[in-house]
What does this fold into?
Amino acid sequence: MSRAPALAVATLLAAASALGACRSSRDELFATEKSQVEMRQIQSRAFETTDRIAVVRAVIATLQDLGFVIEKADGTLGAVTAMKYQGLDTVLVTVTARPRGTTQMIVRASAQYNLEQVADPAPYQRFFAALGKALFLEAQEVD
Amino acid sequence: MVSGRRCALGLALAVAASAAGCRSNVAEQALTLSEESLALRQLQTRRFDTKDELLLLDACSGVLQDLGFTLDESDTSVGLLAASKSASAVETEQVVMTFVAAGFMVPLSYDARQIFRATVVTHPVGKSGTSTAVRVTFQRSVWDSNGKMRTEHLEQPTVYETFFDLLAKSVFLEAHQEISP
It folds into this structure.
């Protein structure tokens, strides 16, 4: 009996398990396309207001104008989740509003396109432009 | 052929690159206000002469329950109500067409089931907050006989007119529509 096939199979199994140890799909839990700091800057804006409920209402109205379906909202927590269907694709957005200091509200939007995080700044710029209009306030970059 | 393989690789890379660009464009498009959004907002919104948001939300949940919806999500602090209704989507002609086409070995499918979603949002309007606006949006997700799903926004005026008619009757108030100048 030749040892070659058995050796080949053993090598393949060893290689497969070594590769598996390198990266598992479970690692996606902590994976992000850009650094956390970069993502926060792209996804956040500051508004000169302390009225969290007003901001959440404006977020809901803006998302409705953009054709999103509001899935969940929590005025106390300042969080809204909404989904938009475009053909076979879905865009999912979560927006949170948190007070900063005594005069500002930080609004952060996280968007997901199908199975991927949206890391491109352009979609977020569009969203904050629309939200600023709804709030009659200017969206300021967060440092 | 070496050159053929290189060509195929180049083509594959080009397709992948354009697909990546396409992906961020879809997200950008999804978050850009369109020209139709104002007209749609007017179609989907009515104003009622009352400050009582809770009254209107209560009435909306009643109307939706009457129409066979179940409530999925609500938050009264921001005036949100989300509801859904499952129903058959079978239309006889589609079924007949599918079977006739199958006889000619042409694969068609027919709509099988659907879920309607209704989202209601209320908010105070007017300088002294004496009125309340109610905005309702309807969508439906349809599954065909092959299990494929598509989602449509319902934009026929009669859908919204019917809903607001039922709502107005339920609260004994008139539903005012904003007409654009």
